[in-house]
Amino acid sequence: MSFVQLVQEYLPDRPRGPGEQSEARPQLSTQLYRCGACDTTYISEEMETCPRCDGPVETTPTGRDLRHVDP
Ligand SMILES: [Zn+2]
After folding, report:
1. Which has the closest alpha carbon to 61: 48, 39, 43?
2. pTM
3. What are the residue ranges spanned by the domains of the chain?
4. Distance, CA 42 to ligand 1 centroid (Å)?
5. What are 9-57's pLDDT values in tens digits?
6. For residue 60, how far is its CA from the centre of ligand 1 (angstroms)?
7. Residue 63 CB neighbours (<10 A)
8. Which chain residues have CB less than 5 Å from ligand 1, an ion?
9. Cβ pair 69, 55 in contact under 8 A
């Protein structure tokens, strides 16, 4: 069973300005990465290795379309 873990260190920590409406949407520049060893999915802008086991992660570009992360 897999689950999604948010990697919050990549989230922007700035207030939204009037000209930044496009950035109000999540997952605009982030992507889903999955570590097969941990069976864990991460949401990050860029990730090459798993922060848990330091193993390779694979991208999951279909995540936003499949809406698997819906609450
Ligand atoms: Zn891992």
Report:
1. 43
2. 0.47
3. 1-10+29-71
4. 10
5. 555 566 666 665 555 555 467 889 999 999 999 999 889 999 999 999 9
6. 15
7. 19
8. 35, 37-38, 50, 52-53, 55
9. no
